[in-house]
Write a structure and sequence with these properties.
Layout: E1 4-8, E2 14-18, E3 22-26, H1 41-64, E4 68-81, E5 95-107, H2 111-121, H3 125-131
Helix pairs in contact: 1-2
């Protein structure tokens, strides 16, 4: 199970601590009041999804012995009116978050292998998490 601790630093900067002593800084762009010292939260969300897709495709190809040389995942996020979203089934009013993606796979693959890897790209755990119902609750402190 992953755990992340986010601590405010100054202005809108935050330090994200994770794993065995790893950290990174998040911020907002200057036009939104930040100092552009690191990625913003939505950039991190897209990075998590893109990384998961790339890793899932790479691991599947490796297990099959398929010659994948590089996976590139382009992502874009925007908010749209639910009434303008043909793919939306759960929300009929208000706004929905729309993530658009393009997965490019390089390597000496035949059409069938390439098509299968595109299917596998939709099966990464982060994709499944973002596509399912998410419940956010209060974290209970460890009684140590």
């Amino acid at each position: 199970m992953s755990e992340v601790t986010v601590t405010s630093l100054s202005n809108l900067r935050n330090e994200v601590s994770y794993g065995a002593g790893h950290t990174l800084v998040t911020d907002e762009p200057s036009e939104l009041g930040g100092e552009d010292a690191g990625p913003d939260p939505y950039t991190l969300l897209l990075a998590a999804l893109g990384s998961c897709i790339s890793m899932t495709v790479t691991l599947y190809a490796r297990r099959k012995g398929w010659p994948v040389e590089r996976v590139t995942v382009r992502l874009r996020q925007r908010r749209v009116h639910a009434t303008d979203c043909a793919e939306c089934s759960r929300t009929s009013d208000g706004f929905v978050q729309r993530i658009e993606r393009k997965v490019s796979i390089e390597g000496a693959l035949d059409e069938e292998q390439h098509a299968r890897l595109q299917e596998i790209a939709h099966k990464c755990p982060v994709d499944k998490t973002l596509s399912s119902e998410i419940v956010i609750t209060e974290l209970k402190d460890d009684p140590r």
